[in-house]
Design a protein that fits this description.
The complex is a heterodimer of chains A (486) and B (501). Chain A is mainly alpha-helical. Chain A has one domain (2-482). In chain A, 74% of the residues lie in helices and 3% in strands. Chain A has 21 helices and two strands. In chain A, strand 1 and strand 2 (68-73) form a beta hairpin. By secondary structure, chain B is an all-alpha fold. Chain B has a domain at 279-501. Chain B has helices spanning 2-5, 7-25, 28-56, 78-102, 111-130, 134-153, 159-189, 194-204, 208-225, 233-240, 243-274, 280-300, 305-326, 329-360, 372-375, 378-381, 383-397, 403-417, 421-447, 462-480, 485-496, and strands at residues 59-62, 73-76. In chain B, strands 1-2 form a two-stranded antiparallel ribbon. In chain B, helix 2 (7-25) packs antiparallel against helix 5. Chain B is globular, with a radius of gyration of 21 Å. Chain B starts with a helix and ends in a 5-residue tail after the last helix. Classes of the chains: A mainly alpha (486), B mainly alpha (501). Chain A binds chain B through residues 62-66, 70, 132, 135-136, 139-140, 143, 150, 153, 155, 157-158, 162, 165-166, 169-170, 173-174, 177-178, 181-182, 184-185, and chain B through 394, 398-401, 406, 409-410, 412-413, 416-417, 424-425, 428-429, 431-432, 435, 439, 443, 446-447, 480-483, 486, 490.
Amino acid sequence: MDSLILASLVLPVFGAAGILLAGRWPNLRESVTIVTAVATFACVVQLVEPVLAGSQPGVRLFELFSGLPVAFRVEPLGMIFALVASGLWIVSSIYSIGYMRGNGEHDQTRFYVCFALSIAAALGIAFSANLLTLFLFYEILTLITYPLVTHSRTEKAKRGGRVYLAILMGTSMLFLLPAIIYTWHVAGTTDFRVGGILPATLTPGALTALLALYMFGIGKAALMPFHRWLPAAMVAPTPVSALLHAVAVVKAGVFSVVKVVAYVFGAGVLAGQTGWLIAVAAFTILAASIVALRADNFKRRLAYSTVSQLSYIVLAAVVLTPLSTVGAALHIVSHALGKITLFFTAGAIYTAAHQTEISQFDGIGRRMPWTMTAFTIGSLSIIGIPPFVGFVSKWYILSGALSAGMLQVAAVFLLSTLLNAAYLLPIVHRAFFREPVHDDHHGEHGEAPPFMVIAVCLTAAGTLAVALFPDVLVGLAQRIVSGGGV
Amino acid sequence: MALAQHLPALQVILPLISAPLAILFRRAGPAFLIVTAAAWLSFAIAIALFLQVDASGLISYPMGNWQPPWGIEYRLDRLNSFMLVLVSGMAAIVLPYARGSIEREIPHESHYMFYAMLGLCLTGLLGIVITGDAFNLFVFLEVSSLSTYVLIAMGRDRRALTAAYQYLIMGSIGATFIVIGIGFLYLMTGTLNLADMVPRVAVIESSRPGLAALAFISVGVSLKVALFPLHQWLPNAYTYAPSSVSAFLAATATKVALYALIRFYFTVFGDNFVFGKLPLPEFMLILSLFAMLFANAIAIFQDNLKRLFAYSSVGQIGYITLGLSFDSVHGVGASIMHLFNHGVAKGAIFLLIGGAVARMTTRQAAPPAPTFERIAGLSKAMPLTCFGVVLGGLSLIGVPGTAGFVSKWYLVLAAMEKGQWWLVGAILVSSLLAVAYVWRFVEAAYFRAPPAGRETGKEAPFALLIPGWLLILATLWFGLDTSFTAGAALDAAQQLVHSGN
């Protein structure tokens, strides 16, 4: 069991080394990526059964500070995140091949190396057994994605990279690090435990301050006002956007939020203390949706949609009912599947038609039927319409909010569902029901390269498949609240 | 066994002998071999002594078998055995590097002199650390300082002369202050042996001469430490000295001065007096904050990389003195750790930059200053050099996984134990300033186009790359395995803090 955990962490690193060595032969290099991704996913999948059965395998590596080791433990929530990250790595690798070749991108080897290392970092976060380990991989993830975000090396990429780094590093250093050290100082441990680790002696003021440090310190969760890095990172190639928005980065953020709320604070300690945080998350949900509504740039609209969707998870986590926690965990999966489909579409349109603005999408669905059908499915899932997976997670979140009697929270979710529909469905309408515009700059084009179409169809099918067969994921999510032991 | 007993003496004597031998040969080759052999041997000895102290505690060695307190005593505890490893280890890494780098920086006929001076400098620094005698400490301080002036002046840039002169003046003032302070102590206690002084100082420390001694020593040592605002000599000295000298000084010279400060404050005067009864902690705290925030901010706006990292050193020294001012195990431990962690990372950075400069240097002209203009787009030509500097920079920032993170963790923890949240904020803000200057390098090296006219250069010579990368790997290693650094530093702090004097 231990070897499986280590293998899933180390495999991507070896894969990165292999990619580097095979850099001169693109076909070999891409094969290494795919093989590594599949092997990593296979390792992760084998951990599911024991975790479902209630055991939590773990590995202790070494002590960084006395009594504070770098250690891993696979608990249900981490299992879900690891499944998402390693599973989507396969699809996004397939997609990357199409995108990077289709657009004739430079420095592809560096791209694949950094991508593989980001997955390793994400898995490190997923399996971390304490805050220190989580922080270690959290920072590594920030740094290793920086070359990806700034891949084009243009002036614009440099500026985007600055915002990306400044916000993520700034929040994690100024807020998250002191929060972790303070936790260590007062609790004498940073292990994740069901029910929390903070001593009961903490005053409400200190508790609120600590919660604020954590919530704003985890900048990857993009709570307003620290959300600007996501739109800034749009400058990256689309597979990187998929990595940021679906596979690893923002998911690492909300995962850390859920983990901190559930395992560092615990529902008991936080009860009645989270009103302000609910307000911030609700504001983020609505405000980001409204910005998305007004954005004409496709990726920008999707980016703000992500900001809004991330706060679903934060909000669900701090509602503090078992049902909403299950919903938060499931929404990590459903948003990942839905949003990766949408971003894949954006990249496919850019590659095939070289278009980035929504107003240029008239009739594009007739030329790219597969891509735009997948987009439609992804949109429906994000909006939360059955039978797609977005509906499942929203159902749990809403039930949780209602069971806690938080009608205003339920209202926010319903309102935001309407907003989701308002910023996504017009794109579908435009693509399928408007007459294509012909211009000289953008000649005739058909579907995107086959690698991309395959990837986007796979993820769209995923939103349906997971909704129809949710047993494993729901089982894992329920393990979080039913307690798999420590 | 006889030899093993004399390791403390050999630690200093080997490099001391190597210097005149190097001069006798008057040739670069043999001089290099002798001094390098001496440095490596003294590194081995330092490790042996460290292990010995680790196993069996204090070592006292009477020089020439004159028993203390009459003779000179070499006295090793957790703190200085740890420092010996840093100083001799850096020398062992820098010397092979110097052979490749001074080729282009120093006229060939003075190479033997360079090695001799480096040997002497090493002798002085090791002597300061190992000796248990106040006057002997002053003598070694002068040995190291005088040889340092020469080493800096050897830089081919003509401004190296003024830099050396400036340092000479400031350093001499500092040394004078120190010797006056030691004189006062001798006057009042009648002894020069530091351990012997301890109980006697306790009686007279509140007297006016006692306070005067403390004041003179504080100012004198602070000059050598480059504690803000006494740091003016440092940026020029680091910028214009030969690359290997910049690296060696950055990693060791100020660190040894800090060691002397710790020794006088915590052992001789005792922290209960210095930090408990005098307003010194507040004073030190404010100066440290100025160093951390101002010097780091100044660093951001430097155009010359060497000068940028020199100002960064002033800022990092602020972390160290801040930790001392907390006067707690975690605070002082963080300082001692950071001596080591910062020394290794900064040494690595200077070595790597030196390698890049060497590649840009032609034999005729003085080495070009590594300005941002010149290093634009450098990552294409020198990927390993640039990546190494970035990793070293991450340690200066204190990113987890690097050595800098470990010391920052303890420093923040110490500030929290004091309940000083605003200091936590100041420490973290200053590490964000480090992000700013490190990222200036990243953006220049990775994003800008190479200047027109620079031939598509090659990677820095391997002889210069390997020593730098060894230190970078050490930085990463000590960021994960902290049993050596944190273990020794916290032990030493335990011995020093509130030890009852």
